[in-house]
Write a structure and sequence with these properties.
Blueprint (H helix, E strand, L loop, with lengths): L4 E6 L7 E3 L7 E6 L6 E4 L8 E4 L4 E5 L14 E5 L6 E6 L1
Antiparallel strand pairs: 1-8, 2-7, 3-6, 3-8, 4-5, 4-7
Length: 96
């Protein structure tokens, strides 16, 4: 079994959407924007701007599923990220 906690550092850019791929079955993940000046865009459906939101400079977004029956499954891509300027990086944390 993998460790119940993992940190990934993702480089992103302002041209393409970068998927967040779940490392292992988990109940919680968070995304931290390390850019101190520029926001990061994120979507739950890469093809739909209606699912888009913005993560402010230095901000962190946590996503948690409180029911063990429903989890972020290994290999799933629940979020896509895109820089507004520069290349990030963003820090993604997974917790079982």
């Amino acid at each position: 079994m993998p460790a119940p906690f993992e940190i990934q550092v993702l480089s992103i850019d302002p041209v393409s959407w970068t998927p967040v791929t779940v490392a292992f079955d988990c109940n919680s993940l968070s995304v931290k924007n390390t850019d101190p000046a520029n926001p990061v865009k994120f979507r739950t459906n890469v093809a739909s701007a209606a699912t888009e939101d913005t993560l402010g400079p230095g901000a962190e977004q946590a996503l948690a599923i409180p029911f063990h029956r429903y989890r972020f499954t290994a290999g799933a891509q629940p979020l896509w990220l895109k820089a507004t300027v520069g290349t990030g990086p963003v820090i993604v944390t997974f917790l079982a």
